[in-house]
Fold this protein.
Amino acid sequence: MSTSPAGPPPPADGLLSAARRNLRELAHGLSHASHPSTPLLAGAPKRWQRLLPYVVVLALTATFIPVTITVLTSQYGVPGALAGALGVAQAAPLLMLAHRPLQAWWIIFPADVMGALVLLAHPDGRHDVWPWTAPGLVAYLFLLLALGLRETRRTLVAVWAATALAGAVLHLVAPAERNTGSALLLPILGAVVLVIGGAVRERSEATRRLAEQETISEAERAQRTLLEERTRIARELHDVVAHHMSVITVQADSAPYRISGLPDPAREEFASIAAAARESLGEMRRLLSVLRSDGTEGDRAPQPGLDRLQQLVEATVRAGLPVELSLATELAAGPGEVPPAVDLSAYRIVQEALANVVRHAPGARTQVSVRVADGHLNVLVVNGPAPKPASPLETAGTGHGLVGMRERVRLTGGTLDTGPLPDGGFRVAARMPLPPSASPSAPPPSEDL
């Protein structure tokens, strides 16, 4: 039984093209910084944190320039002028570590290689290391750390490969008596420093992205909450509008029977009005089915209004919250000429405000006032601070209540003012306009309930 032959090996040109592509990416990483020339810690909240990188690079430069010059002249016998030039070239670019570490590498790395070639022409001492001097090696590690904190993995790999390759080439061309231990030591220590710097940078990037995602999620959550509140308000207002449309339908259908002697054109007009009202009711029901969540049914009870505020307050008092209600006399028996949307909004605002008091300040004394003044319906809910033995049921609410209040007031064309009080309580004040026919003269305060 013969076995099927193995697949053909990958073509050589495919491997070569992949290798060329990787080399191009490494070269691009070495020649293009992955970040703008903004200083490290530029976004720190405190000024001393923003100045810290500059202090560090100034200290490094002030330390390594004289140390490098001294080592080159005393241990390697390099002439003073040449040692000064090499020391400045190898250490002065450390000033760029705070904002342009990759550009600093392009200066320090060739300067280190040039210094190694210069040292070949000078006698070798017993304790001299080559090709990298001790101060040059330490300064280069600081450079690699700065690169690890700012550059991408591709750039770090390219920098490490260039460093290791330069050390290997210098090791091969060095005389046998040369101590080339630093050629192997720098790639090992450099790899450790690059890994540490890269890990810190990636952790910082992950933290920043997480904070941005949390900000986006919070904005989306607020938008979703707003849409949910608007949908809930739309479902409630559907019942109000449907009631009026039903009245129109009944009146239009019964008009020919209630009014005798109607001409045929008038009868047809009433029939057309009734048909249009029924069609509008059907469209509203279909719209409501879209707004209603899956699996939920419509509320069959009539929507509450000002006539049920007393029941709401009594239920809240039975729940343990001391509440006092001040309801204008002309509103105590019912909303009268108050528009249904304002009537429903006033009830819901008081309901949400009392619910917030129960959640955040249980046991706090609360006053509810509903009055008509200057053509507006004024709803005021004020609670004092919670008693000390009591603890809030929620320390940080979702904000649904305030969102719903704002949307209801905006729907009626009114204004809403909410905020904490100096004594630790909270105030909710809504002002909703009334049509001229629905603005009775406000009675004296002594007649309020």
Observations:
- The chain has three domains: 18-216, 229-291, 306-447.
- Residues 249 and 275 are 8 Å apart (CA to CA).
- Strands lie at 323-327, 366-373, 376-383, 415-420, 426-433.
- DSSP finds twelve helices and five strands in the chain.
